[in-house]
Amino acid sequence: MREGHEGTGPGAITPDGCAVELYERLPAGDAPDIIAAAVPAGAHILELGSGVGRMTHPLLARGFTITAVDESADMLARVRGARTVCGPIEELDLGGEKFDVVMLASFLVHAGDEEVRRGLLRACARHVAEGGWVLIQREGEDYHTNVPRERADPSGFTIRIASVEPAGDGVNSVRAEYTFPDAVWTQTFLARPLTKEQFESALAEAGLKVDTYLTPDRTWVRAVPRG
Questions:
Q1: CA 112, 147, 189 angle in degrees (round to 5)?
Q2: Quick check: 1 pLDDT over 90?
Q3: Which of 112, 95, 114, 94 minimizes the C-alpha distance to 48?
Q4: 85-92: long-range contacts at Cβ-Cβ below 8 A with a sequence spacing of 24 or more?
Q5: Against a cut of 0.70, is the pTM above it?
Q6: Three-state DSSP class for residue 59
Q7: Gap between the Cα atoms of 136 and 56, Å rounded
Q8: For the segment 95-118, what is each residue's pLDDT rounded down to a tens digit?
Q9: Does pLDDT of 7 surpass 90?
Q10: Rounded to an integer, what distance in angstroms lies between the CA atom of residue 29 and that of residue 98?
Q11: What is the dihedral of CA 86, 99, 62, 87, to 10 degrees?
Q12: Where in the chain are the domains?
């Protein structure tokens, strides 16, 4: 298990504390619609951190071509209909291959390790085609402060952000709990809060810049290579 990360509950747990069976159950929400509205129809998307295909499969159904990347072979084994690549995202180098869209969702840009974050964003910049876009999902502005909080999902489970505790160097340890009628999972992980300014500075360091914020809460961003 990666330092500072832990997961409990039925089934396989990845090194960052994610439970494979849990992520198979979690709905994609409105994210596929946000993505589809922001990029050209039929685009080839490089999905960094695809997991079990929670967004991969809805995007495939909308007519996109997906290359799904994840470091967990257990996660990728659940992906259907997409090309898959197993390995650390920050080390990804597909030999000069470029994509219409590169997507970094699941709040991965908030990695506790700044070097990992830099590697993730460099991987985005390295693989986006000229004239292409990078889509990034950010945490909400109150993600680390509105705690504890709980949300009952219409599909029949409850997600609770139980605690957020300082872990040093501007990083927080976050504990999430997922309660289903037949099972409970927990995940503890490290996350680094980023203000809008800090986020945009991190993009600039990787050679990217904001094109537009796609949602009113600025949690979904479309970025482009800096000209």
A1: 25
A2: no
A3: 94
A4: 88/119, 89/48, 89/49, 89/119, 89/120, 89/123, 90/116, 90/118, 90/119, 90/120, 90/122, 90/123, 91/119, 91/123, 92/48, 92/123, 92/126, 92/127
A5: yes
A6: helix
A7: 15
A8: 999 999 999 999 999 999 999 999
A9: yes
A10: 28
A11: 10
A12: 23-141+193-225
Query: Which residue has tokens 């910049």?
Result: 125
Rg of the chain taking only CA atoms, in angstroms: 17
Beta strands in the chain (DSSP E): 6-8, 44-48, 65-70, 83-86, 99-104, 128-137, 149-152, 158-168, 171-179, 184-191, 208-213, 220-225
Structure tokens at 56: 């991969």
What is the arithmetic mean of pLDDT over 195-201? 98
CATH number of 23-141+193-225: 3.40.50.150
Instruction: Dump pLDDT digits (tens) for 212-224.
Output: 999 999 999 999 9
Answer whether residue 227 shows pLDDT above 80. no
For residue 69, is it left (φ>0), alpha (ψ between -120 and 50) or beta?
beta
Tokens of 21: 């069976």
- Burial-class residue 86 by CB neighbours within 10 Å (0-12, 13-18, 19+): middle
